[in-house]
Task: structure prediction
Amino acid sequence: MPNSSTSAEIAHAAAILRAGGLVAFPTETVYGLGADASNPAAVAKIFAAKGRPQDHPLIVHVAGLELLPLWAREIPAAAHLLAAAFWPGPLTLVLKRAAGVPDCVTGGQDTVGLRIPAHPVALELLKAFAGAAGAGRYSGVAAPSANRFGRISPTSAGHVRAELGDAVDAVLDGGDCDVGIESTIIDLSRGRAVLLRPGQITPAQIAAVLGTEVDSPDSGAPRAPGALESHYAPRTPLQLVPAAELAARLTALRGRKIAVLARAEAPSGLKDVYWQAAPRAVAEYAHELYASLRRLDDLGCELILVEAPPAVPDWQGVNDRLRRASSN
Ligand code: TXA
Ligand code: MG
Result:
């Protein structure tokens, strides 16, 4: 793996976490901004660094399944099935929280989001943090995506340094994130599986493991604030355009400074348009998406036009992020 942090750097980062500091670290989805989940003063620093509202719950990252009972008071059979199928991996499970989980982690709700990430640097950090004793106090790292509130999640250590720089005590480098969009979030706290945020792992894959359908959120579902509002947004206004309408839109906007993200090469003869060709396959598209949006955002264009990807289930996670990026 290129640019990977050394074991000494990871051990130092674990010591920073134990001392109540902030460490940004790579996961397979996006970079996280981590703090000791059992230390409210440390967790408060996450909210301050991000400018994030206090009632937004955080995902607790753990090194192994044996640590789950410290955070969740009920671990239903469905959680064991999904953990066996997808962990370590880009899946977050929302379970009933255990006694003693700080309110600042759960946003005051009776549930907690939990995930075992698949990135080797993240796993080594979580293990070093938990220490030889394993299931002691230092068992979970609360980590949202390591971006300012509402902005695009970082998929490289450079993105984190550019956006949060001085606000973190250490940034571990694990290269570019493989998946590129945030984890799928499934609520299992109310006796059935509910999709709170789409990601690379699809509802069909979850349903195949559980043998039951995955529901959409109803009014009683746990709040997943970051997944509800305008989010993942560049500063430049972004519009989603059906593929068939892209050429006409560009003609209408002729002479203006426009950026385009499309799953095709640029047509010849375009002027004043910065064209970014995106991969056709969903995994590669997601892997590059946030870096592409950051690049286009930095050009100082009037508008970013994104050719709408196919409206099919495999693209649900990507389409969800693009829709939010276009909503302000
Ligand atoms: O891939 C990911 O999940 C990344 C990496 C770093 O693990 N993390 C991430 O964290 O995306 P964040 O904070 O940016 O998004 C977490 C989402 C938010 O929408 C939050 O509302 C939801 O998870 N969430 C966390 N705990 C929850 C809970 N107890 N109930 C409902 N939603 C929860
Ligand atoms: Mg986020």
